[in-house]
């Protein structure tokens, strides 16, 4: 597949390119006025693109393909580059409300431990914390994450690729402007994998419950557990 080129910031396609407010099931967890620690595991119900707080869609999103296929594009409060969500993925979202916060790298480490622990319970091997905050099997990425924080809140979400291919990523995303070293400039196809492609079958309900229980054990929580429409 030939590599798609970024659009210029004054490209006329930008005028037709609507970025919607983030209204997915975990949006309430990022509300600073909420109370308690919360955990939500949910499944997107359609394909969509979500860009980071500081993302320039002209540099990260294939405008022609998104407009042609009427793919919604949302902007989240967390950082990082654009991602594709689909029903073949699960999202684990955590909110910690405390004024005594750990550094972001330590938050990433603790949250990834929860997710990797729930995967290991189901026999998934060779998991590792790669880059700043990815989960990989060997050198292939299966989950990406992002974080938002203020003085009272740490909000984190992880997108786990359960069974999806990389076709939608190749179609709707450009090569990201920032990459972790372990990616080694690989394409989406060569860099990203799924649990299914690695020979694993995930019990999603069990995974969600194990994530919730470990989150409660570590942090205490008013928790939510759901598989909701996105």
Helix/strand layout:
Layout: E1 20-21, E2 38-42, E3 48-51, H1 57-60, H2 63-69, E4 73-75, E5 83-85, E6 89-97, H3 104-121, E7 127-130, E8 134-137, E9 140-149, E10 153-161, H4 167-172, H5 188-191, H6 204-219
Parallel strand pairs: 1-4, 3-4
Antiparallel strand pairs: 2-6, 3-5, 6-10, 7-8, 8-9, 9-10
Helix pairs in contact: 3-6
Report on the structure:
By secondary structure, the protein is an alpha+beta fold. It has a single domain, classed as BirA Bifunctional Protein, domain 2. 24% of the residues lie in helices and 23% in strands. The chain contains 6 helices and 10 strands, in the order βββααβββαββββααα. It has helices spanning 57-60, 63-69, 104-121, 167-172, 188-191, 204-219; strands at 20-21, 38-42, 48-51, 73-75, 83-85, 89-97, 127-130, 134-137, 140-149, 153-161. Strands 2-6-10-9-8-7 form a 6-stranded antiparallel β-sheet, with helices on one face. The protein has a 4-stranded mixed β-sheet with strand order 1-4-3-5. Helix 3 (104-121) crosses helix 6. It is globular, with a radius of gyration of 17 Å.
- CATH architectural type: 2-Layer Sandwich
Structural class: alpha+beta
Number of strands: 10
Query: SSE order, as H and E?
Result: EEEHHEEEHEEEEHHH
If helices are DSSP runs of H or I spanning 4 or more residues, what is the number of helices? Answer: 6
Q: The biggest beta sheet, please?
A: 6 strands, antiparallel
Cα distance spanning the termini: 30 Å
Query: What's the average pLDDT?
Result: 89
CATH superfamily grouping: Bira Bifunctional Protein, Domain 2
Low-confidence stretches: 225-230
CATH class: Alpha Beta
Strand residue content: 15-25%
Count structural domains: 1
Shape: globular
Q: How are the strands of the largest sheet arranged? A: 2-6-10-9-8-7
CATH topology value = BirA Bifunctional Protein, domain 2
Using only CA atoms, what is the Rg? 17 Å
* Helical proportion, percent range: 10-25%
């Amino acid at each position: 597949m030939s590599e798609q080129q970024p659009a210029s910031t004054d490209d006329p396609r930008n005028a037709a390119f609507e970025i919607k407010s983030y209204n997915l099931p975990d949006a309430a967890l990022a509300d600073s006025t909420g109370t308690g620690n919360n955990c939500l595991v949910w499944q997107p119900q359609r394909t969509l693109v979500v860009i980071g707080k500081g993302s320039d869609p002209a540099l990260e999103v294939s405008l022609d393909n998104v407009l042609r296929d009427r793919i919604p594009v949302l902007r989240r409060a967390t950082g990082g580059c654009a991602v594709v969500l689909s029903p073949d993925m699960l999202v684990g979202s955590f909110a910690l409300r405390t004024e005594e916060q750990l550094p972001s790298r330590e938050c990433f480490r603790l949250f990834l431990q929860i997710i990797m622990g729930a995967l290991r319970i189901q026999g998934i091997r060779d998991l590792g914390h790669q880059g700043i905050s990815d989960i990989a099997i060997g050198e292939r990425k299966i989950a990406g994450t992002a974080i938002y924080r203020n003085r009272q809140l740490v909000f984190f979400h992880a997108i786990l690729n359960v069974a999806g291919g990389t076709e939608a990523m190749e179609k709707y995303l450009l090569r990201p402007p920032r990459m972790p070293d372990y990616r080694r400039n690989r394409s989406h196809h060569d860099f990203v994998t799924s649990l299914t492609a690695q020979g694993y079958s995930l019990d999603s309900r069990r995974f969600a419950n194990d994530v919730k229980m470990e989150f409660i054990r570590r942090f205490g929580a008013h928790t939510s557990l759901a598989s909701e429409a996105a």
